Amino acid sequence: MAIVRHLYFVPWTLTALIACSTAPSANDEASDTQHTSSGTDPSETGESTVPTTTVGMTGETGETTGEPPMLDTYQFAGGCFSLRSGDRYLAAGDPTSFAFAADKAGAARFFMKAADLGTYLFYDQDGGYLVSDDGPLVRQTELESDVTRIDDTYVSGAEWTLETSVVDWSQYQLRNRRNDRLLGADALADEGVPVTFEPAEGCTPHPELTLDATGQITRTMFDDGDLYGIVDTHSHIHSNYAFGGGGLFHGGAYHRLGVAHALPDCSISHGDMGRKDFFGYIFDASGNEEADLASLLPDLVAKQLGEDNHATAGWPDFTEWPDGPRRSTHQTQYWLWLQRAYLAGLRLVVQHATTNAIICDFMIGEGIQKSRYGCDDMTAVDRIIDETYAMERYIDAQSGGPGLGWFRVVHTPAEAREVIAGGKLAVILGIETSNLFDCKLTPRDGDPTCDEAYVEAQLDHYYDLGVRAIFPVHKYDNKFSPGDGDRAFIELGNFANSGHWSNFTLDCPDPQVGGFDSGNVNFGGLNMPRDVYDSPAPVDNSKFPTAPLTTTGMYLGQITEPALEGAYCQNATLTALGEHMIRQMMARGMIIEVDHLPQWSYVRAYEMLQEVGYPPIGSHGRNNGGVLYELGGVSAGGFGICRGDAPGATVQGFKDKIQFIMDNGGYPAEGFGFDLNGFAGARGPRFGDGVCPTPQTDPVTYPFSSFAGDVEFTPPRVGNREIDFNTEGLAHIGLLPELIEDARRDAVDEADLEPLFRSAEGYIRMWELAEARAAELGR
Q: Is residue 190 a part of any domain in this protein?
């Protein structure tokens, strides 16, 4: 097992506040701080500099009259403490139990790992947790969780929430999150014992990944006053909560119980050697691109692949994943990896909740994988929104209290500006899913009536939840528009979702505007174009969720017919309800994501946007021949991979794009749209057999400094594995520093990359323009 270092920042100075009864606690007001990414803090040495919390807001008398004070419950994150009640200390009586039965010399020494704000794991010097599942205080070296059980209702007995003691207001009581009962002398009790946390030495830090960076953010603005920072316009941090949450996509960006439960061995859901990971097998760029339905049918019936797919080891070995370019069903945005990217200049992320009910229904309905909740799109969307706020709290908890973390969900352009100017990462909430608001093209029992009033109510509901960016449609036909028209297995999914045959035509916009619905039709036998887009479905696929193979197998003849060759596109455009939704999004100043609109819908949407001068976002890189920039919109781009004979080859395309943006009246900046955790792959390596047409030189070496010069990066590790960007590419988001460094070493001038670091400014300008147009339009 690798030696782990705890590299998140803990504001130790806040703890001094508790020593004075008249000083405000961290609960009352969270002050801003600088952000450090490394260096030595007490958690690394197992020592604590936190003063003993024997004096509370009532002084030393232990009074309990009037209203109880709010003691600081946040200050202990990452600290080393022993727990005392009266004159007895909590200790392990044997390898499997704890009790308040020892003197100071025999006290257990606990590393306090924050699970949430004011909630902790108590991890002793020998690697055991303080746990209570049903009463007794037990010591466990391994924990179960909702992940290991694939049970959304499971709550660990290892989580303890700190409260002011009702017995003595100058001390604490510990409430068990699983049982909602209090820590007693040797078991849970209705009335808990008062507890004092005494600083200790010699703790064992809780297992965690390393950050592999040192320094602190100093640059937040350009000299002209524009914000300094990169935008990732298209991200999916929490895809593990999509598809029923059962592990079709494996690994979390965080977990309350730590890295071992966020990134465990994926055999839990993917099976031995990944043989149940059908979805990854189809999507991974690892030699399986030719997989087709006929070849997979025997394996689907057997409920596992007939050959090994991938090694499954997660924490601490990570044998084959994370691997952004080759392993699509594994987490690439763990919170510390995201923090490393933030330290390299990432300052704005658009976090889209995404899922796919048909893929979920298939895997669950065939018994290949389990789920934690229903497959409906909006069930996953709601959960992902909740988890994004929970992750914000989690990072706050590691940082010492509310508002102190570097990850901030924002709801207005002004908030985004404030967060980025303060040296933190602003996060915008979005939705990218097919059955938006449960508005399927062909409703099923229990689905809502999707009319104008319902759509307006849903927009208001999700706006109130903080959502600002929305795709009107994703892969499949819905009440707003035909799906994006993506080919191959998406054609089958659309058939299962809607009960309609494919609807592709050669009668396309002239000139064509690109998009997913361009080119050949893979399943030619499914293509039966219709005149009326929302006519009654000719096929009843309502039994698909419970019998996927049986339902679709009835149409095996059509499915196995040959492909159709030609410049096909979707044979329909935005519906009246779709146009209404776009107008209502404009009225609310929301960010309209247009890149999954098929060609005819795309053309109509731009007509609507041009009528009022409203800016769109093309986070998959489309710009409608520059019209997007004329409207004040933003798109996404990136760098080339291979270097040429002359310097600057990897950044030349980026420079040309910036010039194109300027020629069309846009702000000279463009960020990324990585789409990580979105089954879109990731930037591959520059070195390796067959990667580039010419031999490559000048690999990234260490250490190197950020573009701003305020952070130094060392070789990235994931547990026991060292990752080499030169030969592996963007294995996870934390390799963004390397991607920038590689381009920087090829650039002719540092100024070539400046538009990248202005991209957060560019995105916020688009958002500000959207809100200004909304104010002009009214409601």
A: yes
